[in-house]
Design brief:
It contains 15 helices and two strands. By secondary structure, the protein is an all-alpha fold. The protein has one domain. It has a two-stranded antiparallel sheet with strand order 1-2. A hairpin with a 2-residue loop joins strand 1 and strand 2.
């Protein structure tokens, strides 16, 4: 399985077009905020608070990292689609390699790619936060962020794996990638703060598993900026800001705790992986 894993990783990183396309959603988000959406973030009262630029960039960074965990995993799954298109998978299944090892190599490669690319994305974004006057995270916060990135990649890989398991051609995969890359920002409350969206859309965002990874990352990246920006501001105003910006999610009067979000990510990942394996077995039968 190790040989297959190396082969899949090399194919992904050698394909520069696929590599760039897997980062397209990130470029779109950055471009949208740089050109159009920067002024709609928060009302005049928030923009008048101290160090709000660092707070906004921390919020955006968390969302970008959550998106990256999904889109880069989808790019890595392009290998399995290409193999199906070229009928190379039939050669693998006809060999002495266990089918479970072949499937695991595809899935593990996508997961590893998601983790690596998301961490690489986090480095310049974190440096930029410091460059505009923000405070660097503590070592413990970086460790927590790395743990959430692992969970985000796990959840994102599982969901993408389920989608890919239902596709039969490269064209279908490209279409799915385009749609996913376009919608992912809305489904995770990245393009606009969740508090500005209709109730039905807010509910959809809260149900969408990767959105919980975005929420957890916001809690980590925005913790220190919020302390500075909202110093001396009434607590109820800060709590309203957290809910409106998707730092925390609520259902009715109940606030979803980080522990619940973590469990939700793990359980949803297991469900999607299970459904993916069922689809893959059907394709082989």
């Amino acid at each position: 399985m190790t040989t297959l894993l190396k082969r899949n990783a090399m194919l992904y990183f050698r394909d520069k077009v696929n590599l760039l396309l897997s980062l397209l959603a990130i470029f779109i988000i950055i471009a949208l905020y740089g050109l159009f959406l920067g002024n709609v973030w928060g009302d005049d009262r928030i923009r008048a608070l101290p160090e709000v630029d660092a707070l906004r960039q921390s919020w955006l960074t968390a969302g970008i990292l959550a998106v990256s965990a999904i889109t880069t995993s989808m790019g890595a799954f392009g290998v399995i689609v290409d193999d199906r298109d070229k009928k190379m998978d039939k050669g693998f299944y006809a060999s002495k390699i266990k089918r479970s090892h072949i499937t695991s190599a595809y899935i593990l490669n996508a997961f590893i790619v998601g983790v690596i690319m998301t961490i690489i994305t986090a480095i310049p974004l974190s440096i930029f936060i410091i460059a505009i006057g923000g405070t660097a995270l503590t070592f413990l916060s970086y460790v927590k962020a790395a743990g959430i990135i692992l969970l985000a990649s796990l959840s994102g890989t599982a969901m993408v794996c389920f989608i890919i398991s239902m596709l039969k051609s490269r064209n279908a995969s490209s279409t799915a990638s385009t749609i996913m890359g376009t919608l992912i920002g809305f489904l995770m409350g990245i393009y606009l703060p969740i508090g500005t969206l209709p109730d039905a859309v807010q509910t959809a965002i809260k149900i969408f598993p990767p959105s919980h990874a975005a929420s957890l990352l916001r809690q980590i990246f925005m913790e220190m900026p919020m302390q500075v920006t909202f110093e001396g501001v009434p607590t109820e105003y800060l709590e309203g800001f957290k809910e409106a910006m998707g730092v925390v999610y609520t259902f009715g009067e109940h606030v979803i705790t980080p522990f619940v979000s973590i469990i939700y990510l793990i359980v949803s990942a297991l469900i999607f992986y299970g459904l993916s394996l069922i689809n893959m077995r059907r394709r082989k039968s």
